[in-house]
Amino acid sequence: MLGTSYVVPYAIWDDPADDTANLRWLRDTVQSVEPLGTGHYIAEADLLAAPSRAARSFTPADWARLRKLKERYDPENVFHSYLQPHPQ
């Protein structure tokens, strides 16, 4: 655990026609509180919302270790992963 609190907004809806509006609301809401946070819980992070989300789900040392393991065991990048390169 990186912080002392855990805050997670959820959005649930039934009609696929509402996807765009609800995803926008959810991402805007998360973005508004993100400066107050220290990271993301990897199993619940919206990894598509920003390239930095996967890295912010781990300590910097753990993220570096995971990247090195991926480079070692998947040098050809065969397997899709949230460990893909991202802006530093």
Overall number of structural domains: 1
Q: Uncertain spans, ≥5 residues at pLDDT below 50?
A: none
Number of strands: 0
Q: Class by helix and strand content?
A: mainly alpha
Number of helices: 2
Query: What is the succession of H and E elements?
Result: HH
* Helical proportion, percent range: 25-40%
Rg (CA only): 15 Å
User: What is the terminal-to-terminal distance?
Assistant: 22 Å
Largest sheet: none
What spatial form do the alpha-carbon principal axes imply? flat
Approximate strand percentage = under 5%
Mean pLDDT: 83
Mind explaining what this structure looks like?
It is a single chain. By secondary structure, this protein is mainly alpha-helical. It has helices at 19-33, 60-73. The protein has one domain. The chain is flat and about 45 Å long. The relative contact order is 0.12. The mean pLDDT is 83.
